[in-house]
Every structure is written in structure tokens, then in C-alpha cells.
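Q&A log
Question type: sequence-to-structure
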Amino acid sequence: MELATIRTAEGTRAAVRSGDQWLPLGAPHLSALLADAAWRTTAQAALAGPAPHAVAPVAADDAELVLPLPAPRKVICCGLNYADHILEMGRDLPEHPTLFAKFADTLTGPTDEIAVPAAAQGALDWEAELAVVVGAELRNAGEEEARQGIAGYTLANDISVRDWQNRTLQWFQGKAWDATNPLGPVLVTADALDPEAGIEITCEVNGVRRQTGNTKTLVFSPAALVAYISQFTVLRPGDVILTGTPGGVGMGMKPPRYLADGDTVVVEAQGLGRVANTIRFTD
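Response status: OK
Response body:
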């Protein structure tokens, strides 16, 4: 299934895609939909046929796809998870995942402009990523339980402020700027997409390809990451896990190359669509 949060004249609503239209569901967005243990049944029922008094379908061309998960309890990210990116950063392959956290405030929509304040404009970098969306409560999960507990996948761009990131050994201050992490445009359920079989993810800056990676080369698979994280913190439906970025980031270039005012960054993956955002420097 393909799920999204759509915006119409009546506001936002979680929806499931059926051909060339979106079928609105009862929740205002996917964060709220996934909080209901029956979310999958609800979406499947909508696909099976309209219920009495159901909200009318919305043509795909008329639906604006917005931030799909505006209220995750946790956003956890894995750095250094593609071998080529690890090597371009001058590091050894890790024995354990390198993790950091963000807040929900960091997230923004798949086509939103990214407003960058003056303090963050010096070394702004792109990072195309596959994001995992949790679909069940998980504690101390094994890898198979973790795999079964994944609701699905979406795209992310972990926009990073490198000069702030490199101020200390901890990356947090370079990764958690408000409304700088595009997410979306859709959530594709785990039964329809298999990252371990391989999903190619690309990033273009102003039409120039900068990153190409395949999820089958991840050091830690999505299921392995979910299982590992669940050992020390409970994961709940709607939580988001970013799985890392492939090689080709601006910081890895010689000399480094960073984003400027007006640049457009596009992250794409077959089956997951694209996020396309323009950078706007603000005072």
C-alpha cells in the first residue's frame, strides 16, 4: 500500500492511494493513523470499497502531499552506514551503528522551502536517505520481530550544518535545526518494498547528480537498526529511523562544496517518489 498525508481545502488527512486517486481515512495525518493498532485494516477496508458516509476520493493531481509524519515521538538517525560514505569520511567500518537523535521539529514536507538562518549558512550539506517508519511497539526486539514491526519506508534528506556538526565529537547541534529535514512524500508499506533486496537512492543538486547508493549495501539493514535501537529505547508506531546516506556529500568533496541560497535538492528512489526542496537563506 501507498499511504500519505494529503492537504485539501478541508485541511490535512491521512489517505491511501487507489490508482489515480487518494482515499481519505479517518485520521488527520499518518502519525495519528499509525497510533491506531488497526491502521492497516482501516486502509485495506478503504481500498476494498467505500464505507457509508466516507469522505469522497481526491484525484491524485488535486492532492498536495505534505509532511506525512508530523508527530513522531522519536526520530533516530544512523550515520556512516554505507561503506563508500564511511570511507570518504576517512573512517573504518563500524562494529555498531553510529546513532544520533533529532526532534519532530526538524522535519519538514517533501516540497517545502528550507529556510536557513544566518548562523547555519556557511556549510550546509545534503544527505539522501531511506527512512524506516515503525508500525508496532517494539522493546528488546530480535531482528525478525523488528522486520515484522516495520510499517514501511519513505525518503528523507538529512540536511546537515557541517561547521556546527564538527564543533564537537557529538553531531547533534549540526543535525537538529528546525524544519531542515524533508520527509516523504509517501509511506510505502513493508510488504511492497524490500530494502535488503536493493533500492537505489539518488540526490541531485541543481540538476547535477551528487549521490547514488543502493540499500542492499547498507552495513546495518533497516531491521538490524530497528532491533538494535529497541534494546535501549522503546519504539512506537510512527517513530522514524533514518538509515544513513551514501557517498557524495558536499563535505567529502575536495574542496568541500556546500548549498547556497536558491539551490534545489532532489532526493529520489524508485517506488518511493521524490522530495524536492529549495534552499532559502534568511536573515
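Response note: The longest helix spans residues 39-48.
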